[in-house]
Design a protein that fits this description.
9 helices, about 25% helix
Length: about 350
């Protein structure tokens, strides 16, 4: 069952949480709603689930208007950040809960409930914990039980609100890989909310980057990372260096100060080359700090009073033998240039004039 969000607006008093938001999510796709706190991502998820009502707009499931359909009738599975398991119920009874509260004419038999619950517990690899209680489980196990409970009612849509936010880093990594595999097996429309860029880029088929109640960009993980549509997306998705410049014809000149043609050029740390000698298109700089982090070496350099970050491989750093105070030259690659929110084609500029 696909989801279509059409022109949704939601206000809380004078605060506009969502402003004319539209989005299509086809069956079988795993979509991440990504953005900072307060951007509207959880509000959008709750409107899709029917837990919040939009002030304007509509939500369609498989082309049918579900805007005023009750949550119970939407066939949606919802997983909360903090599990929301019933502490007085065993793992088995937590998963069975949604089946037991169905109307009598829709409720499966006791044998069918038992069979379905044990199959789901096996699917999430926790069938051996059926008789335990939530207090006896780890955080990662509780979240898998919460997911099994959401799946027990055979939802057509699965919604997850920061499902791994309360877990430590290693458990998060294990569970998001597990969620990706589980989604591929279930093949339903799934939407999860996160503010973790790495999580969204690793797990999702498409990423919806949100900011202040608007959608900034929708695309594959590779598209939003390598070709950000706006300066906000560039800044939000990973580390970035910002060069202020002005455009003159085919030239982008750095450090020229503000003006009507002022632009901002963005370059990722791994897209800046450090040279021992001046070359065409390079900028004079001085090394401030060098730090090895796993397979990478992070170098902070100063150029005309500004600090920029460069990431090098260990091999390249060993060749350069960089030390604090050393004079070097910077040559950026894959420059992305914006005037306001408008992306410009960096290939049309001879960036060697400044950048």
């Amino acid at each position: 069952m696909g989801i279509e969000v059409k022109n949704i607006t939601k206000r809380f008093g004078s605060f506009v949480a969502l402003d004319n938001v539209s989005l299509d999510i086809p069956t079988g796709e795993l979509v991440a709603l990504l953005g900072p706190s307060g951007c509207g991502k959880t509000t959008l998820l709750r409107i899709i689930a029917g837990m919040e009502s939009a002030d304007e707009g509509a939500v369609l499931f498989s082309g049918e208007d579900a805007t005023h359909v009750h949550t119970r009738e939407r066939k949606v599975g919802f997983v909360f950040q903090h599990y929301a398991l019933f502490r007085h119920m065993s793992v088995f009874e937590n998963v069975a809960f949604g089946l037991r509260v169905k109307p009598r004419n829709e409720r499966p038999s006791e044998a069918d409930i038992c069979d379905r619950v044990m199959k789901l517990l096996s699917l999430v690899q926790l069938d051996w914990l059926a008789d335990r209680y939530p207090s006896q489980l780890s955080g990662g196990q509780r979240q898998r039980i919460a997911l099994a409970r959401a799946l027990a009612v055979e939802p057509k849509v699965l919604l997850l609100d920061e499902p791994f936010g309360a877990l430590d880093t290693q458990v998060r990594k294990e569970l998001r890989r597990w969620l990706r595999r589980l989604h591929d097996e279930m093949h339903i429309a799934s939407v999860f909310v996160t503010h973790d860029q790495e999580e969204a880029l690793e797990v999702a088929d498409r990423v919806v980057v949100m900011n202040k109640g608007h959608i900034e960009q929708v695309g594959s993980p590779d598209e939003v990372y390598t070709a950000p549509a706006t300066p906000f997306v560039y800044r939000f998705l990973g580390n970035v260096n910002v060069f202020h410049s002005r455009v003159h014809g085919q030239w982008a000149e750095v450090d020229r100060g503000p003006g009507k043609d002022e632009t901002v050029a963005f370059v990722r740390p791994h897209d800046i080359e450090i040279l021992a000698h001046q070359a065409e298109g390079s900028l004079a700089a001085r090394v401030q700090h060098v730090q090895a982090i796993g397979p990478l070496v992070r170098v902070e350099v100063e150029h005309q009073g500004e600090i920029f970050e460069v990431e090098l491989s260990r091999e390249r750093h060993d060749q350069l033998q960089l030390t604090a105070g050393q004079a070097v030259w910077l040559r950026p690659r894959n420059v992305r240039v914006f005037q306001g929110n408008q992306a410009l084609d960096a290939n049309t500029f001879d960036l060697g004039g400044g950048i």
